[in-house]
Q: What sequence folds into this?
């Protein structure tokens, strides 16, 4: 009796263009980068530090979010290279390290604000936010 591999023709993987794996890695990296914009808390944090470096306690006060949550989100943003941090005695200060990320955020806010009814308060808030950055 023939073995299964002798009876069936071997399956070929479909030909993939050279560099497709590289392109897949690029797209995966871009998706992770944009995923950082998908959380309102991270957007609040970015808003809080766009103009100047802020301590964690100042960011907590500005966002109205718990210190645990702010620290977790700051850790993700730092790991991604979007923010940098420095320690001064017992305080940790964060600032924007990736200006392009903030520019993307601002552009998206302006685009969304342009689609919102002129009378809606959210439109004014988004435009004000974008103008500050």
A:
């Amino acid at each position: 009796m023939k073995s299964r591999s002798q009876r069936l023709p071997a399956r070929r993987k479909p030909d993939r263009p050279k560099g497709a794996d590289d392109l897949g890695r690029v797209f995966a990296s871009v998706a992770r980068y944009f995923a950082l914009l998908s959380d309102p808390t991270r957007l609040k944090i970015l808003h809080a530090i766009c103009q100047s470096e802020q301590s964690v306690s100042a960011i907590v006060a500005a966002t109205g979010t718990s210190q645990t949550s702010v620290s977790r989100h700051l850790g993700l943003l730092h790991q991604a290279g979007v923010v940098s941090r420095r320690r001064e005695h017992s305080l940790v200060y964060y600032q924007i390290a990736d200006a392009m990320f903030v520019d993307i955020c601002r552009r998206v806010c302006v685009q969304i604000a342009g689609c919102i009814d002129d009378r809606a308060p959210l439109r004014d808030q988004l435009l004000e936010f974008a103008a500050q950055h």
Q: What stands out?
A: The radius of gyration is 23 Å. The longest helix spans residues 99-115. The helical segments are 4-7, 20-35, 40-49, 56-63, 67-79, 99-115, 121-132.
